[in-house]
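Fold this: Argininosuccinate lyase
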Amino acid sequence: MAQLWGGRFTKETDKLVYNFNASISFDKCFYEQDIRGSIAHVTMLAKQGILTEKEKEEIIEGLESIRRDVDNGTLTITDEYEDIHSFVEANLIDRIGDAGKKLHTGRSRNDQVALDMKLYTRDEVTALDRLLKELLETLLTLMKKHMETYMPGFTHLQKAQPITLAHHMGAYFEMFKRDRQRMKDIYRRMNLCPLGSGALAGTTYPLDREYTAELLGFDGPTLNSMDSVSDRDYLIELLSAMSTVMMHLSRFSEEVIIWNSNEYNFVEIDDAYSTGSSIMPQKKNPDIAELVRGKAGRVYGALMSLLTTMKGIPLAYNKDMQEDKELVFDAVDTTKGCLALFTGMLKTIKFNKSRMEESAKNGFTNATDAADYLVNHGVPFRDAHGIVGRLVLYCLEKKIALDDMSLEEFKAISPVFEEDIYEAISMRTCVEMRNTIGAPGRAAMEDVIAAEEAYLAAE
């Protein structure tokens, strides 16, 4: 068992205790961040005269050779080591000798792991942002393509008013745009370097923490060494932001699943993102959408678990904090996978435009516009509301849409109706007359699309 702390102990750690305590099985995934941080650390130590230039060069060469060998598979990270830090240091000493023993000067595993986790998180926030941007670009493409694809808008899962598919996609654009903003907020707030905080109280070595932070692309060093080694707020923020992403993906997936049903038939999901039944040959199941919907709970669970872990921990570092890694690693992989797969599904999905428009007509989504027609012809709104209610009841009895009524049938309920009622309640008119900011009319949507294009171009 390769340990960095054996001098104080006279008995070997029990194997079960060692395995329970070890983190190598999961923290090996940020060997690159550990080596990157160590190179910055020894570069600073040499600048401060704590290491010689020769020692710095030997250590950096050794670290880079370890990174290369892990990358190409000639060096394997095994559970012989307690954690990724001991793996790197032990292999460094094996390769360059006594100079490698100076790597840990002025540093604790507490500030080292805090740095590694921040570097990893920063990398993953950037990766999540790229995936969110790709999803937004896909949504914008659909918005441009479907400005005249009419469909019902819903409240309470009941058809309410006609909109366009472009407008519907635009609602999700706003959601995922906010998700990107949250990622950027997390990056900005977390981008302070904990290295040099030591175990909890800094160090007597004359470290230049500002220089180390600069080398690693941070905005500066953290300002309290106790907080530096015990801060996991940025991970809780990331898990919260990813939970919101997953909530948005789950809502979207729910709609795709409904739209894919026989009763709606709004969409056809590409074969690559569907599966069949082992017993029912007619089935084409929306499995990817269902799995994305289901995996939201997995990410929520990671958030609640870390919140619960952190709520009772006194300052400063405690071993409980090791629980952050598996939770965050799994949640990040889950969210990234769901974003990539959902975007792929959305890029290949086919929309049944005629069925969507027919559904809007048959759902009386133009009833409000029929009432507005009467108001525009001098009928008080409350009376107009009652008249259109009678029209709907009549259509339900006849099993027809408002558009299918003859002018005589309209006039039998209210003599105010004239031939222009048909134009007033057409899907196109119902949508195109709504041009306030954020509405589905073409003029309003063109302004929004231009704004969204500018937003993506500026990023």
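The first strand starts at residue 150 and ends at 155. Strands lie at 150-155, 158-164, 267-268, 350-351.
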